[in-house]
Backbone:
């Protein structure tokens, strides 16, 4: 029977791996190159994460949990519209571009049938729907799903076109519609 990984070491590795993957992406991720940049071995990464796919999922779960906690904190004491606007500003910042790109990349891999990523993609969408629904008092899952879907679609549009003005106008229109008006 082998020894179990030490949680503290795994947590430290996870933080470093997040930085590496956000900088380099998933497309050509090599465990050897990752391990070398972290000063460890591919074998040690597999010891802590079991597989490359599990490592990627754990990185994204960790990143998503941080973003969802941030949204919960942003939501304290502000209107739902203000919380969504703050979240939008955060997600469209230069610092967040790698995480958004990575999340979209993983969602595409999930759509393409990569079963190791499908549960993560589903769970992430459901958690965001739950968080948005909780923030928007009186809303239901359908409204929260609409908000998350529009948010995701606009982020994809922004990543592809970088047409900030048009996309932010569309985002503001969504907020107006949520508040009961139309532009």
Residues:
């Amino acid at each position: 029977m082998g020894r179990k990984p030490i949680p503290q070491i795994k947590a430290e590795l996870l933080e470093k791996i997040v930085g590496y993957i956000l900088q380099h992406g998933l497309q050509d991720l090599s465990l050897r190159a990752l391990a070398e940049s972290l000063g460890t071995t591919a074998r040690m990464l597999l010891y802590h994460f079991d597989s490359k796919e599990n490592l990627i999922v754990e990185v994204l779960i960790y990143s998503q949990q941080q973003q969802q906690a941030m949204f919960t904190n942003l939501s304290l004491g502000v209107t739902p519209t203000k919380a969504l606007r703050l979240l939008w500003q955060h997600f469209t910042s230069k610092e967040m571009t790698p995480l958004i790109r990575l999340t979209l990349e993983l969602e595409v891999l999930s759509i393409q049938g990569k079963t190791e990523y499908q549960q993560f993609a589903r769970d992430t969408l459901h958690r965001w729907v739950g968080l948005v629904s909780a923030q928007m008092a009186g809303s239901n899952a359908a409204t929260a799903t609409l908000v998350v879907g529009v948010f995701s679609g606009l982020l994809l549009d922004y990543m592809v076109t970088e047409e900030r003005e048009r996309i932010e106008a569309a985002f503001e229109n969504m907020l107006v519609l949520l508040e009961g008006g139309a532009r």
Summary: The domain at 7-178 is CATH 1.10.357.10 (Tetracycline Repressor; domain 2). The radius of gyration is 18 Å. The CA atoms of residues 77 and 83 lie 9 Å apart. The chain has nine helices and no strands.
